[in-house]
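User: I'm curious whether this sequence folds into something compact or stays loose and floppy. Could you predict its structure so I can see for myself?
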Amino acid sequence: MVDSHLVEQRLASIRDRLARIDATLPPDRRAFLADRTIQEVVAFNLFLAFQEALDLAAHLIADAGWELPTTAREHFEVLERHAVLSPHVARSMAGCAGLRNLIAHTYGSVDLARLHDELPLGRDALLAFSAEIAAASGPTR
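Assistant: Here's the prediction. I'll summarize afterward.
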């Protein structure tokens, strides 16, 4: 049985991480590229928001007893195959898995311009993921 409290907590954490990014992100790319603290806050919170989404996907998959994914990308593909996520959101989140891996595995040498440029797509994907998971999870308390 899906733990609705866990789902709510993870979705709230994703929203909180995105709010921290929104509160920190300067209005222009130049200011972002000039401030290491802002870069780190954005990268860290984006990584953790994606990780929350990945952990939530893993929980839903395990709880349902569906096929076990072997990559981060596959988690979202499994949720699409079982009609939890729309094809568009699943593709968007699968693409975000690459951005998450970029941050996780090359943190010291992340292409900051790329991170800044891909941030709106990642943010939108996480918001859409959260909305679809909330809808699929039914009414909350």
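Summary: The chain has a mean pLDDT of 91. The chain has six helices and no strands.
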